[in-house]
Amino acid sequence: MSDLPSVLPEVSWFGALCDDDYEQLGVPDPALASSWDHCRSIVVAADRNGFDAVLLPSGYALGIDATAFAAAVGPLTERIRLLLAVRIGELVVPQLARQIATLQQILGDRLLVNIISSDVPGESLASEPRYQRTLTAMRDLRRLLAGEAVSVHGEALAAPRIAAAGPGCPPLYFGGLSPAARDVAAQEADVYLMWPDTLPAVAAIVDDLRTRAAAHGRTLRFGYRVHVIVRESEAEARAAARHLVAALDDDTGTAIRNRSLDTASAGVARQGELRHAADDEGYVEDNLWTGIGRARSGAGAAIVGDPDQVRAKLDAYRQLGIDAFILSGYPHERECDRVARLVLDGYPHAPLGA
Q1: CB atoms near residue 132 (< 10 Å)
Q2: 162 three-state secondary structure
Q3: In a domain, 242, yes or no
Q4: Helix H or strand E encompassing 181
């Protein structure tokens, strides 16, 4: 498209650390369960295939620990950035700052951070106080990683020594659809990360966040987390989508979705709305299929099509202001190779800020 933005997009892959890897959704496969060996293979494949970053997701009780995994896998990769998901509320911020500063010693500038505003078991905060806690944590994290002291529960805490000597706070990715979440993003996020939605809805979200950020004298970059099912032809891609959910029943899908702590969030509710608005085959607009959301609490839709259709869909998002994509496919290692070969090869991209 001739009117695409001049900024090249960041195209990333997904690390599947949260027991979210299948040949067919709802059919557990011990070989695809999250483990050091399996998830390491996915990240190494993403690095080999030229993806710019890889998201290392965090689940409170699911899969394996993202921070420990990042420290171990970092030295095994050559150029890929690690987008580490951290759940605010699980750790006190000075401890989180120390972990991030340690990872920066291992990775240099190859660390990115995805902030998640989440309840933990036994706690249920309303949206506004939970996001206020997240906003305070993001601000304190930036200050600590800049070598400045902060006050935590009334106690003055100096920055960790290794943080004061480090490169500062890595870029913070953050998502959330509620008004409270959008306000946090406008004030402190570097990249506002959204889940799949229709093109008009994506445009509206981008416009709203730009307005909110401008009110604070800031600008944002925008990211889009979506699955991809790509084959040589559209017919083959649609058949692959049908195969992915062929063994899934509604009770199993509901049980999988309910394992997450974010089932009541505005973002999850919107993914459900998309499924209900879709046609009989699950498509809510051209090449955007919502079937994955039947067995997934978070990002619940996939771009489905041939290579040209997938690239055209990515370009349509770019025209709306998206410049960071986090892609995934089932099973993740095999589809990492396929998406790289059919979509990424020849598709201009570069890490943000490059």
Answers
A1: 16
A2: helix
A3: no
A4: helix 179-188
Q: Which residue has the tokens 């990211």?
A: 223
Is residue 266 a part of any domain in this protein? no
CA distance 177 to 183: 10
The pLDDT value recorded for residue 296 is 80
- Write down the residue that tokens 């295939």 correspond to: 49
Q: Classify residue 296: in a domain, yes or no.
A: no
Using alpha carbons only, how large is the chain's radius of gyration in Å? 19
Could you list the residue range(s) of the whole structural domain that residue 46 is in? 10-227+305-344
263 pLDDT band (50/70/90 cuts)?
low
Tally the domains of the chain: 1
- Phi/psi region, residue 168 (left: phi>0; alpha: psi -120 to 50; beta: rest), is left
Residue 247: helix, strand or coil by DSSP? coil
CA atoms 57, 62, 67, 70: torsion sign:
negative
Q: Which of 231, 254, 251, 226 is nearest to 242 (CA)?
A: 231
More confident of the two residues 343 and 7? 343
The pTM score is 0.94
Strand (E) or helix (H) holding 64: none
CATH of the domain at 27: 3.20.20.30
What does residue 186 show for φ and ψ, rounded to 5 degrees? Answer: -60, -30
**pLDDT tens profile 283-334:** 999 999 999 988 887 899 999 999 999 999 999 999 999 999 999 999 999 9
Residue 137 lies in a domain: yes
